[in-house]
Amino acid sequence: MITKDLKEYAEHHWISFQKTITDISSNGKNSLVNSNTEIYCFDDICLSIFNKNKAPTSADGLSITEKEIELIEFKSGFKRKITKKSFQKEMGFCKEAGKICEDYWKLFFKNQKKEIDELVSSIRNKAVESYITLEKHIFPRCNETNIHMPLKYVVVIDEDEIDYMEDTLSDLAGKGNAQDNHFTSIKRALYRLTNQFDVSGTPYYYDQIVVLSAQDFYYRLQKRNGKSKKPTPECV
Known about the structure:
Shape: elongated
Number of helices: 7
Helix content: 25-40%
Largest sheet: 6 strands, mixed
Strand content: 15-25%
Strand order of the largest sheet: 2-3-4-5-9-12
């Protein structure tokens, strides 16, 4: 829980850092979520605090409402056209050997897993360093308040959760390791960053970590904006 009035501080000092979610979720070519809703660009906030060469990695966005504070990381690269469930062995046919090359597919999925692991590691690093930035550099500038605000870390990825529902249910039931489930692997990587306590019993880190598909994040955003009907999201 946060006992600092971050909302008041942001409204007085960070107006110039407000951007649309379309801009903040952009990778330079496409936006993960297209929405004119404005939140604070946490990357820009961090760059304004630190020397450019010493700026920590940071979450993309910061959302502050009357009820909660959310750091939001938009991450593309999880969506794969070829998975272990959808690949066709024939695509690895070697003309010289006259047969399907099993080593090709082993190497393909090994490299693919390495790329995913790097994405998850990046998300975790940003979660840690973003929290440190808030705790050590931003909260000390804010006034105390009697209102306790929960702090959440929200990860939005370019994957459809329904595609991994079977793996998720198996994981929850303790059947199988669901190693291809990006949602559960991200949650596991971030698990120790929630509800920690120091030696004096003071809580730190995040109250909750949420991992969403771009579609579900968009729907969640629409509900907060008072649009209860599920729209067709413009997502990559």
